Structures are given as structure tokens and as C-alpha cells.
Recover the amino acids of this structure.
């Protein structure tokens, strides 16, 4: 019996998950980002807040993801990248993503997606030119991967709200974290 493809696994995980209206999500998220823009002086401060909030979400979401997706340990960064793009993006956002261009050292890859439900009704005014509106996604990826022992940096490379043809998040692996027993417990 053959194993289902990652795309099929993502579709099945999405079908089993509880859903929130995409419009409600987009409007709620938009209101949240607007409030952050009002509360912080610069777009870079808002970007940092969104990434931090996303990180905390990712730390918690990874357990839900592993339990509901039936994904076992990924044996490589390439496999991890495919799981994020084909299963996690489908399961949590309902969108399909692909793994984009890899760096020569195979430690950096892109996650490319056309549809972004967070930005469905959004427009960036000129004063928010430095804002990465969906930066919360970078934090979610970073937090989730840290919980499975991968220290990464995530950043938006392209965004449709900025006039790009697609959305792309670049993920760079910095180190594989080794679990250490607590001091005194050898």
C-alpha cells in the first residue's frame, strides 16, 4: 500500500480541520494589524510585533499540526520544506504553496504562494511601505520549527500587496538544535 502524497495529506488535514470563515479571518487580522500600526511608530516595529506574535502561535500550533497531520519526523530540511508548503499551509490557511528556489548550500529555501487569506481585503498605504503585512506567518514558521529542533530565520521576500506577482517567505536554517538533558540528569 503506497503512502499518500504530501498534497493529498494536506488536503485531508484541511478537510478534517475546523474552519473559520476566510472573510472573518481576513477582517479580524486586518483590524489587528491596523491597531498595531496605530500603536507603534514604525513599520519595522510592527513587523517585529507580528513576527513575535506569530512565533508564540507557532510554538503552540506545532503540536496540533503533528497530531492532526500524521506527519512523522522529517529526515531532511528538504522534506521539512515540502511538509510546510504542502501540508501546513493547506491545513491552517487553506492555500497551496510550493517550495521555491534553494540556496547553493541547501540551507535556505522559499515558500511561494499566490493566495493569502490574511491579505484578502488589505491595501498598504504609502506610509506603510516598509510593512510586511503577513509577517505573523514568518513567526509561526520560526516558532514551529524551533519546537522540532530547527533554529531558522524567516522573512518575507515578496508580497502581492507590494505589487509582486506572488508571496514568498524565505526560510534559512541556522542550526539543528540538540536536546540536552537538564543539568544534573545524566
Amino acid at each position: 500500500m503506497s503512502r499518500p502524497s504530501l498534497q493529498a495529506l494536506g488536503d485531508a488535514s484541511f478537510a478534517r480541520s475546523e474552519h473559520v470563515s476566510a472573510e472573518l479571518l481576513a477582517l479580524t487580522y486586518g483590524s489587528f494589524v491596523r491597531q498595531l500600526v496605530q500603536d507603534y511608530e514604525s513599520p519595522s516595529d510592527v513587523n517585529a510585533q507580528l513576527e513575535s506574535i506569530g512565533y508564540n502561535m507557532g510554538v503552540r500550533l506545532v503540536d496540533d499540526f503533528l497530531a492532526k497531520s500524521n506527519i512523522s519526523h522529517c529526515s531532511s530540511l528538504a522534506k521539512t520544506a515540502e511538509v510546510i508548503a504542502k501540508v501546513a499551509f493547506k491545513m491552517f490557511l487553506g492555500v497551496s504553496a510550493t517550495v521555491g528556489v534553494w540556496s547553493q548550500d541547501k540551507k535556505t529555501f522559499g515558500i511561494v504562494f499566490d493566495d493569502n487569506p490574511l491579505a484578502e481585503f488589505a491595501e498598504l498605504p504609502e506610509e506603510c511601505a516598509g510593512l510586511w503585512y503577513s509577517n505573523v506567518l514568518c513567526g509561526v514558521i520560526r516558532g514551529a520549527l524551533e519546537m522540532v529542533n530547527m533554529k531558522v530565520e524567516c522573512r518575507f521576500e515578496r508580497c502581492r500587496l507590494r505589487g509582486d506577482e506572488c508571496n514568498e517567505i524565505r526560510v534559512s536554517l541556522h542550526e539543528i538544535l540538540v536536546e540536552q538533558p537538564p543539568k544534573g540528569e545524566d
